[in-house]
Write a structure and sequence with these properties.
The complex is a heterodimer of chains A (about 350) and B (about 525).
Chain A (H helix, E strand, L loop, with lengths): L1 H8 L5 H35 L3 H5 L1 H10 L1 H15 L7 H18 L4 H26 L3 H20 L3 E3 L5 H7 L1 E2 L2 E2 H19 L1 H11 L1 H6 L4 H27 L1 E3 L5 H14 L10 H20 L4 H26 L2
Antiparallel strand pairs in A: 1-4, 2-3
Helix pairs in contact in A: 1-2, 2-15, 2-16, 4-15, 5-10, 5-11, 5-13, 5-14, 5-15, 6-7, 6-8, 6-13, 6-14, 7-8, 7-13, 9-13, 10-11, 11-13, 14-15, 14-16, 15-16
Chain B lengths: L20 E12 L2 E12 L3 E6 L5 H9 L9 E4 L2 E4 L5 H6 L2 E4 L11 H6 L16 H14 L15 H13 L9 E5 L7 H16 L3 E5 L3 H7 L2 E6 L2 E7 L5 H9 L18 E10 L2 E9 L3 E5 L6 H8 L7 E6 L2 E2 L4 H7 L2 E4 L3 H4 L7 H6 L7 E2 L2 E2 L1 H14 L16 H13 L5 E5 L7 H16 L3 E5 L3 H7 L2 E6 L2 E7 L5 H10 L11
Classes of the chains: A mainly alpha (about 350), B alpha/beta (about 525).
Amino acid sequence: MTTTDAAVAATSENAPVTAARRQHVARSLVERYGLVILFVVVFVAFASVWNYPATFRSSDNVQQVLRSQAIPAILALASILPLVCGQFDLTVGSVAGISAITVAGAITDHHLSLALGIVLALGIGLVIGLVNGLLVAYVGVNSLIATLGVGIAVSGLVEWYAGGRSILIATTGSLAKVGSRNWFGVPSLVYFVAGFAVVFYYLLQHTPLGRYLHSIGSNATAAHLVGLDVRRLTLLAFVVSALVSAIAGVLYLGAIGSASASGGGIPLTLPALVAVFLGATTIKPGRFNVLGTLVAVYLLAFALSGLSLNGVESWVQNLVTGTGLVLAVTFSTLAAREGSP
Amino acid sequence: MGRQLTSTFHEVGQVEREQALALNLTNVSKTFGVTKALDGVSLQVRKGSIHALLGANGSGKSTLVKIIAGVESADHGSQVEAGGRTVAGHHTSPAFARETGIHVVHQDPAVFGHLSVADNLAIGRAAGYDAGLVAPIRERRVHRHTRAVLDRFGLDIDPKTPVAALGPGARAMLAIARVLQDQEQDTGGVLILDEPTASLPSAEADQLIATLQRWAAAGQAIVYVTHRLDEVTRMADTVTVLRDGAHVTTRQAAGLTEEDLVELIVGRSVAEAFPPSRPIVDAEPLLEVRGLCSGRIQDLSFDVRRGEILGIGGLLGSGRTTLLSTLFGVRQPAAGEIRLDGEPLAAGGIRAAIRRGIVMVPEDRSREAALPGLTTRENLSASRVSRYWRRGRLDHRLEAREARGSIAEFLVRVASDAQPFHTLSGGNQQKVILARWLRLTPGLILLDEPTQGVDAGARAEIYRLVRTAVDAGASAIVVSSDPEELAKMADRVLVISRGKLSAELTAPAVTAHRIVEASFGSAHPHEERERP
């Protein structure tokens, strides 16, 4: 919003300047909504002109994509908070994994109640968030290294507990119902994504907390010198991220109906980060933002779904995801450089 | 109101002594988006002369320097001529600059903080590193070379010191030494210095200026970008002034006074640039400091009276910044007592200090105050976000309205309150930081080098804004390396030397001369270089 407002507000009677400004505004519109436009183009292309357009736009396929991307979307939202204050959280996937295995183990292996299982999972998430936050904010360990290490260690714990097993939960249980049903024709998990998106959007845009986290991410020293408790706020970001990841793990279990050692960890973390970075190139270019992240998650998901319907092999999908991310960030970097004096 | 200057000094001819030109720019323009940063500027720099390039922040000086350095290309239609070669302005490159002997020392010198002084001087160019990319570095030669360069510039620094541990003064000297080291014999190129003395104490600045004058006498062409007008009248041969991206004038420096220069830069007379200082005698003290020990500060006692601007002078590293950060709660004092309004200042850190009405504008704007990616509005609000928390959400409308109010009140020049902070010029950034704190209507305003990297026009406005706040009932402590600034701004000046009070001067007896005298009174200048 910044560049457009600035351009519009700069008033001048000069005709050539007006033309230049119009061009400038047009460019910043493209910059802001490029990814959204791409989303529409990709969707329309697969839904109308390519092979199997009917299959692509069928409600089964759309629902399948929406459902399968719900957990990555929630994890992406979870990792926004630490990223906004300038820190990576590479544990989101691992936390989701250990959370799912904890609940499955509690109710299947130990016959505990679902509520107790969820409390346990959230407790573990809380501990991991605290460990991350203490290491990064209070000890001063680089967040990339600290959370990479913690994430791997957590995956190790999951493997120790689950071994090669896949722990099933009863398909008639309330968790499986919540995770796999459609409510009003929309997969239940989508409501959770929407709920978290609203909460995070509100936190980041409409509360002092969000402003504080943005300030810390912009310049932690300056944030400290305006009286913010930088360390405690950073710790809080990690704790919230881990708790939301833990909830995502519980929902993941509900959706899949089972948990295993291969279900979480870094393979679940990376797509989340890809989406957040891709999302930062749109809506509010240069800032990690909730709407952009959701656009990115579903742009990639629908693109990959269309490709696989057309028989494209999986290596192409990785190629598309990787180059897509690099290209989007490159264009956005170039655009930012062009626009500023 | 503006005095007629043009009759007194003749314009330097466009093609006068063409063959002696070291650098010749013709019709340089540069457009960023909708703004024209430079508009048809021409610049001729003669060999063996010091050419001062002046202008307010945002006047286009930095852009021009970037184009000369080849890091930014000009719009079509311009020409750059240097070292006997000519290139179109939109085709300049760092390689062209290097090949034609253009050396630029930027305002934020690119030094490698965690490498040693020796490595910083030697890397990529000099003795010891020349054996090949993977051949062992010849440490002894590097060391010898470093010693030689440091001696030549009178820098008393251990070559093994990491650069990050040096103060800004020593870092700036080092950056210039790095560029100059290869040029000793060859004076064919152009040396471009972007505010080299901005963070230097005057003794070190004088030393640098003497060096530059020696170089110029030997035939070196020097382009000198600065805000310190006293230096211009002292050392420059030629002066070029830019305003709003356009060339205002190029003339000989001889005979120009600082007032003339300010008038050329600002484009209007700046009478009343400094609101008058006055001694405050009978007022009761707002702040009482007794026996304070903190870092370099040893057993310091003083008062700040209500409605007073107290200046703190002294050399870099004398403990001035430590004093301010102790008062602001950034660091805890080792001993001593601080009372505000008669009540002891409890150990509670920065938040407690702000609650008691103490605010601080820190020394290093980009490192300690700026929130670069955020908007001007968000930077203004940083000190009181919670004020806008109304009925469960941030009241963005109220915030924007108050931001526009502050922008008008503090004379910040921005397109809108949503303009990203890092796109503002230095002077406007500093006004935003000042406004961020003054809108809290504080009781005690701590200002650390409030006009560093700020142009003459904005500087006068900042003085006035501070004086207005003080007249409205606040008190202020101003730390400055510029004795002239302290003399004009403060009602009373304390000079600190090596952590101790060395002099107290009260208006109208405060003069730059006496401040400098007291700063050097008990300390040897070259012992002072590390930051506290």
